[in-house]
Design brief:
mainly alpha
Length: 82
């Protein structure tokens, strides 16, 4: 019994703390994705205004990057669930 307690003291986190850390990380990633999307929309809007992209290209750029982000987030979540 003492050996188990010693292991916990040297760095093994209880399951509840690990879940809390993962949940916090997930919420941070969702918030970060939201901010990134807003920034990407601003950047694509500036490119459209400068004539480097047309509106359709700007929308496609934003949608493509959002889809990639969701796909990567889902991949990471599936890895965390294992």
């Amino acid at each position: 019994m003492k050996k188990r307690a010693e292991k916990n003291r040297v760095g093994i986190l209880p399951t509840s703390k690990v879940k809390k850390i993962l949940n916090t990380g997930f919420l941070l990633s969702v918030g970060l994705a939201s901010v990134a999307k807003e920034n990407l929309e601003k950047i694509s809007g500036k490119l459209v205004n400068k004539g480097r992209l047309n509106e359709k290209q700007g929308r496609e750029l934003v949608n493509d990057l959002v889809k990639r982000s969701k796909k990567e987030r889902n991949r990471v979540l599936s890895l965390l669930r294992k």
